[in-house]
Automatic annotation (TrEMBL), chain A:
Name recorded for this polypeptide: ABC transmembrane type-1 domain-containing protein
CDD domains reported in the protein's UniProt record: TM_PBP2
Subcellular location field: Cell membrane
Tagged with keyword Membrane: yes
A biological-process GO annotation: transmembrane transport
Gene3D superfamilies noted in UniProt: MetI-like
Membrane topology note: Multi-pass membrane protein
Species assigned in the record: marine metagenome
InterPro entries given in the database record: BPD_transp_1_N, MetI-like, MetI-like_sf
Length: 338, 282
């Protein structure tokens, strides 16, 4: 198979899965017992109000027509009105999504920047004190709930040693940059205000780290295992017999093959991190999509819940697709074989 | 066969980490089962108030301190383990059988069954687990423990389908499966009596690891206020209640938080030990 064919096939699969997901989420939203209109309005609403909301949500049509309306509207960018914020859901998404996007990208960066070196150290200095320490960090990363990381990091680095800020995306006293992409890091750079850039960067570190910790653990554990397998290979022994330095062997010969399995599961790590965003945004009062998601869930806002689930799933699907393309670049032989 | 003298147990016991994990898990289960006997203030579990002793930091009498209305946090943490363990066991007894049956059918029967079942599984896997569980709870009526169990099970079964499907595919061409086919065994017999026993080591390992992770996800949901409701002593809820009072009343959320960490760590260590013992990859 050619690389181009692979691209097309992979994008096609993602689109099909997206439709499948939309069916699943739509069915969940409509088939779950109880009247969504009644649940959204609460027990004190009058019959007429419920009937009116049923009419606006098209709940009186058959399920197939409802799905058709849902999909057609979806492609027109119309996700309905949120019964919680009383605004179109799309407007809410545009407001809240960039904050979460920025946060999760920060976490992804931290995952690679900390997880990979930790795994490499561990695998290179196997069964030494460095290895043990790094394995303990990784294990704790995996088994500690993200909200506990958020609390611990907050207590340590915001209260005990006040190095980092406690909440929100940037300092209140600074003027927010003009809304262009919604990503503070980029908007502030476009405006040329380095102070805002630095401030929002500092605000990203603690929540980003709290979200990334489980993924850091995963990446480092997997890198360690793969690296130690590679170190048993003959070509590494050959390089050693040529008296190449440990550093050169690790970075030049062992790292690329060892990183392939790690990269393959990065998509999965992103799934974890997207879930963790819900927990960490709550602790750090981060004005993002996940915090919005929790609010619409508690408010029983049907359109809001469906949109949140779809946005997170699409984000995950796109990340998975990009990861597969990176794997293709790293190892074309295996991917294109069949 | 005495399990403690088998070569498997020997291999397991040679790894100190696995043994530590086993001790942690046994201790947690023991404490949860005998909670009314070992906790100092069993009456603090319900809607109890003692305003004379509210918000006391950890001391000899209250080793984890007391909460906003004077209840002993240690007692509530131990009772919280009862909820967590029940959640883990119930979720996996729903998710694992569904996933295993689907995986066996998809892997052994093949053809259209395989395509349909695996596509459905892929679609469910495409939604991040916590997001799916959140959406389901959000769409159900009022959050409670039962709904949490249903929601987490719905998000968890696809992993078992994947696991069993992969194993089934790799062993369906083995001699003993062919032999059973020639002898005219039914499909059900082959799937559950010939193939399933060979999946057991992987299945057992995955269930052990997942017990920890289900507890973690369950506590995450209750942290968001979508699990068991007050006055039930749920670990995630306790952390959430305390989080708004940081940094002053740190013991409100740190001790229940560490309690979650410990039990997840225990199951994880045992699971890793089983992984090495059976030499399987899950």
């Amino acid at each position: 198979m050619l690389a181009f064919q692979y691209f097309i096939k992979r994008i096609g699969v993602s689109i099909i899965v997206f439709f499948g997901v939309s069916v699943v989420i739509f069915c969940l939203a409509r088939l779950i017992p109880g009247d969504p209109a009644r649940i959204a309005l609460g027990p004190f609403a009058t019959k007429e109000m419920v009937e009116q909301l049923r009419e606006t949500l098209h709940l009186n049509e058959s399920i197939f027509i409802q799905y058709k309306i849902f999909i057609v509207n979806l492609f027109h960018g119309d996700l309905g009105i949120s019964t919680y914020t009383k605004r179109p859901v799309l407007v809410d998404l545009i407001n809240y999504f960039p904050a979460t996007f920025e946060l999760v990208l920060m976490s992804g960066t931290l995952m690679l920047l900390i997880g990979m070196p930790l795994g490499i150290l561990s695998g290179t200095f196997k069964n030494t004190i460095i290895d043990h320490i790094s394995r303990i960090i990784s294990l704790l990363g995996v088994v500690t709930p993200s909200f506990l990381w958020a609390i611990i990091l907050m207590l340590l680095f915001a209260y005990l040693f006040p190095i980092f800020p406690v909440s929100e995306r940037m300092d209140e006293t600074l003027d927010p940059p003009k809304l262009i992409t919604g990503l503070l890091l980029i908007d502030s750079l476009i405006e040329g205000s380095f102070k805002v850039f630095w401030d929002s960067f500092v605000h990203l570190i603690l929540p980003g780290l709290a979200i990334a910790m489980p993924a850091i653990g995963n990446v480092s554990r997997l890198t360690r295992t793969n690296l130690s397998d590679i170190y048993d290979k003959q070509y590494i022994e050959f390089a050693r017999s040529y008296a190449f330095s440990n550093f050169k062997i690790a970075t030049k010969y062992a790292l690329k093959p060892a990183s392939i399995p790690t990269v393959t599961i990065i998509g999965l790590d992103f799934a974890f991190m997207l879930g963790n965003a819900f927990l960490v945004e709550t602790v750090f009062v981060w004005p993002g999509m996940a915090k919005y998601g929790v609010e619409v869930i508690l408010a029983k806002d049907l359109n809001g819940i469906v949109a949140t689930a779809l946005v997170f799933t699409s984000f995950f699907l796109i990340i998975n697709m990009l990861v597969d393309f990176v794997v293709l670049y790293l190892n074309p032989r295996i991917v294109l074989k069949d | 066969m005495n399990i403690f003298r088998s070569k498997y147990f020997y291999k397991f016991s040679q790894n100190p980490l696995s043994v530590i994990g086993l001790i942690i898990v046994s201790l947690v289960v023991f404490m949860a089962v005998f909670a009314p006997i070992i906790t100092p203030f069993p009456e603090h579990v319900g809607p109890f108030t003692d305003f004379a002793n509210k918000s006391k930091p950890p001391s000899l009498k209250y080793i984890f301190g007391t909460d906003k209305i004077g209840r002993d946090i240690f007692t509530r943490v131990i009772y919280g383990y009862r909820i967590s363990l029940t959640l883990g066991i119930v979720v996996l007894s729903i998710a694992a059988p569904i996933g295993v049956t689907m995986g066996l059918c998809a892997g052994y029967i093949g053809k259209k069954t395989e395509i349909i079942l695996m596509r459905i599984t892929d679609i469910f896997l495409a939604i991040p687990a916590l997001v799916l569980a959140l959406a389901i709870i959000g769409l159900l009526d009022r959050p409670n423990l039962f709904y949490t169990m249903i929601a987490v099970s719905m998000a968890w079964w696809p992993w078992y389908t994947r696991l069993i499907y992969n194993i089934t595919r790799s062993i369906r061409a083995e001699g003993y499966v062919a032999a059973a086919e020639i002898m005219g065994a039914s499909k059900l017999h082959i799937m559950f009596k010939e193939i399933l026993p060979n999946c057991l080591p992987s299945l057992l390992t995955k269930i052990t690891l997942d017990l920890g992770f289900v507890i973690l996800v369950g506590s995450s949901l209750s942290f968001l206020g979508l699990g068991a409701q007050a006055p039930t002593p749920d670990l995630g809820t306790m952390v959430a209640k305390g989080a708004s009072l940081l940094p002053d009343a740190w013991w409100f959320s740190l001790f229940p938080g560490f309690a979650i960490l410990i039990v997840v760590l225990g199951f994880n260590l045992v699971g890793d030990g089983l992984k090495d013992m059976f030499d399987v990859d899950v």
